[in-house]
Specification:
The complex is a heterodimer of chains A (about 290) and B (about 375). Chain A is mainly alpha-helical and about 290 residues long. Chain A has 11 helices and 4 strands, in the order ααααβββααααβααα. In chain A, α1 packs antiparallel against α8 and α1 crosses α9. The termini of chain A are far apart. Chain B is of the alpha/beta class and about 375 residues long. Chain B folds into 2 domains: about 220 residues, Rossmann fold; about 130 residues, Response regulator (Rossmann fold), CATH 3.40.50.2300. Chain B is built from 11 helices and 15 strands. In chain B, the strands form 4 sheets. Chain B has a 7-stranded mixed sheet with strand order 7-6-8-9-10-14-15. In chain B, β1, α2 and β2 form a beta-alpha-beta unit. The longest helix of chain B has 23 residues. The N and C termini of chain B lie far apart (about 50 Å). The chains are: A mainly alpha (about 290), B alpha/beta (about 375). At the A-B interface, α1, α4, β1, β4 and α9 of A face α1, α2, β7, α7 and α8 of B.
Chain lengths: ~290, ~375
């Protein structure tokens, strides 16, 4: 029974990684850049929702929508101000800029909202399913997190596969110059990608803080790095890959803690990552590509 | 990769700030004794650094208002990072610091206390509780309990009052504070025949999910969980235990202080949580009431134990300066010698204890008090 409960906890943690990883992978797949500020957009989303609920007493749905709205705007703004001017620059420059934006957001949050940790209110009531005579408890938050993750993954797959904008995104991902020749507005496509990624970040932030209700300016950074790992693990650029990578990472982390050692759990997680990358350098579901220099 | 780059950026930024500080730091002596300190004014541990800086400022203002001996206090940010703390310490030296309050947290304090010893500049840290902060340094003193002291006192308290028979411990194994308390707790528990049935850990990188640690404790039948950690992870543990429907007794240490003032924290979660702490903001003695009132007026918050420790530090230094006839024109090294003699011989009454005395090892002797959280407030247990 404890195995099952660890498994569910693992999937729950993994779903959060997966939603964050989806944001990473979208942006990487289309703009070919690692947006290290993604984790901090998550934190901003969580703060927006926190204040909407706690200070203005808005209903949770409005809080989440507001968080998505503000994060979308923030994502577009970051892209416009920090990344767009560097479109022609080497990718290392963009990477450093992304790290800069990440620190900027963290310190901005520190300045705006202070260093005192806040406790995120429970959006979903704390009800739980008790199965097998109460031996197995599954929180509603867990179920909603998992469901949200699956819905988002399917939604994104359909969006990139079937809509005009989605196809434009894939075209940009394949070959930017060819996409321009085909009459696709690459700048706009990348902006939309950032908008979607940031809206996802807001959802991830709310779910992360609902599951683990501690909110501080550094809240997003570690889950962000883990989710980035998950995205690489699953094959960066691949939407199902990010989903799979996130879920597996969560499960491995919890199982490593439960059955091997709480002290070594992170080492084990990254050891698995190294092994996977040694055997399959593009990640679990990554496409094999020929790098043209 | 991110870390390396971040480190380079941090070093660059620090160089700039150090240069800026040296440029602005050359003010003329104003007849006041310069007290310097480093602490996390930003970053994850900023609540402690800010509490100390705020409270020290209140104490300095009070003392200056008395006339006579004048103090000037300056806090430099170390962001709870040993490297930054060294830079912050050097900035203080350039400013012409004469006495220091060391560092607020243990990890930076280990670095700065070594420099304090080398340079012969006196340090009295309000809250860096790791024993290695004072070990082998005859001019570094602590106002707070050392970690061993806390671990030992907690084990004894639990054994004497029969609070729990099967004990689980969750500690943060990448933090000196948490590990230090755990080690002495475990050693003392063994001596006292307390049964520890589950020991699990977490790190800064894995402090979100405690489901595994809690189910381990539950499966082992623990009726008391000892939490030697700061209050942020503790708040998550309380929330997750509640969600699991697991309700053992929780016993914390002084780092638990602050949990009730977290924005949005559901204080019913902390109902019945016990902790050992030397300071209680609800105490009704005149000193505490006066300090809490001033702190609230000025900073809009209830002061925590770190604030009380820093406030006591300034007054302890004041007492030592008066007894030792310290004047503002003495060098840091001259003051250092006087302070060492004073601190090993004097007895000090402060917010965090009566009749505190220091050993030559720099550790303070005072009594911890057991507190329990009832209806969202600390109530004394004895």
């Amino acid at each position: 029974m404890s195995f099952l409960s660890h498994l569910i906890n693992g999937i729950s943690l993994g779903s959060i990684y997966a939603i964050i990883a989806l944001g990473y992978t979208m942006v990487y797949g289309i703009a070919k850049m690692l947006n290290f500020a993604h984790g901090d957009v998550i934190m901003v989303g969580a703060y927006v929702c926190f204040f909407a609920l706690n200070s203005f007493g808005l209903p949770p749905v409005v809080g989440v929508l507001l968080a998505m709205l503000i994060c979308t705007a923030l994502g577009i703004l970051i892209e416009r101000l920090a990344y767009k001017p560097l479109r022609a620059a080497p990718s290392l420059a963009v990477l450093i800029t992304a790290i800069g934006v990440s620190y900027f957001l963290q310190n901005g949050a520190l300045l705006l909202w202070g260093s005192n940790s806040k406790v995120f209110p429970s959006i979903f009531n704390n009800a739980a399913l008790h199965l097998f005579d109460g031996q197995l408890t599954i929180g509603v938050t867990t179920l909603i997190t998992i469901a949200a993750c699956v819905v988002i993954m399917i939604g994104l797959t359909l969006f990139t596969g079937n809509t005009k904008m989605g196809k434009a995104m894939r075209a940009c991902s394949e070959d930017k110059d060819a996409a321009i020749l085909m009459g696709i507005n690459v700048n706009r496509t990348i902006s939309v990608t950032f908008a979607i990624g940031s809206a996802l970040a807001a959802i991830a932030g709310v779910l992360l803080c609902s599951a683990y209700p501690l909110l501080q300016p550094t809240t997003g950074s570690m889950p962000g790095i883990k989710a980035f790992t998950a995205a690489v693990f699953g094959g960066i650029g691949s939407i199902p890959g990010a989903f799979l990578g996130g879920i597996l990472l969560g499960i491995i982390e919890i199982f490593a803690k439960a059955y091997l050692s709480t002290e070594l759990s992170d080492a084990i997680v990254f050891l698995v990552l190294i092994l996977v990358l040694l055997i399959k350098p593009t990640g679990l579901l990554g496409k094999k590509t020929v790098v043209k220099v | 990769m991110k870390k390396t780059i971040a480190l380079i950026c941090a070093i660059l930024m620090l160089t700039v700030s150090v240069v800026a500080c040296t440029a602005s730091g050359k003010t003329e002596t104003s007849g006041a004794i310069k007290i310097g300190a480093t602490g996390p004014l930003t970053g994850g541990a900023a609540i402690y650094g800010q509490a100390c800086a705020n409270a020290a400022q209140i104490a300095v203002d009070e003392i200056n208002a008395l006339g006579g001996l004048q103090f000037e206090i300056r806090y430099e940010d170390d962001a709870h990072d040993a490297e930054k703390a060294v830079n912050a310490y050097n900035a203080l030296k350039d400013w012409g610091v004469q006495v220091t309050l060391g560092s607020v947290t243990s990890t930076p304090a280990k670095a700065t206390s070594a420099l304090n010893f080398e340079d012969g500049i006196f340090a009295l840290t309000p809250s860096a509780s790791n024993p290695s902060v004072v070990e082998g340094k005859d001019n570094v003193f602590q106002m707070c309990f050392t970690d061993p002291n806390q671990g030992m006192a907690s084990a004894r308290y639990i054994a004497n009052t029969g609070l729990g028979s099967k004990i689980a411990v969750i500690y943060k194994n990448d933090e000196d504070y948490s590990t230090g308390i755990y080690q002495t707790f475990a050693a003392e528990a063994k001596k006292l025949n307390l049964e520890i049935v589950s020991t699990t850990t977490f790190t800064a990188d894995s402090q979100n999910d405690f489901s595994v640690q809690l189910s381990d404790a539950q499966a082992a039948g623990a009726d008391l969980i000892f939490l030697p950690m700061y209050y942020q992870p503790a708040s998550l543990i309380l929330a997750q235990a509640n969600q699991m429907g697991y309700a053992p007794k929780f016993f914390g240490v002084d780092g638990m202080d602050g949990i009730l003032t977290m924005d949005g924290f559901d204080t019913t979660l902390a109902e019945g949580v016990m902790l050992l702490t030397p300071f209680n903001a609800d105490a009704s003695d005149e000193k505490t009431v006066n300090f809490v009132k001033k702190y609230q007026e000025k900073y809009g918050e209830i002061p925590n134990q770190f604030a009380a420790d820093a406030y006591d530090c300034i007054y302890a230094i004041y007492q030592a300066c008066q007894n030792g006839n310290v004047t503002a024109d003495m060098t840091a090294q001259q003051i250092n010698e006087i302070m060492k003699a004073q601190f090993t011989s004097m007895s000090f009454d402060g917010l965090t204890g009566e009749k505190m005395v220091w050993g030559t090892d720099g550790m303070v002797a005072k009594d911890p008090h057991g507190m329990v959280i009832q209806n969202g407030a600390y109530v004394g247990m004895d």
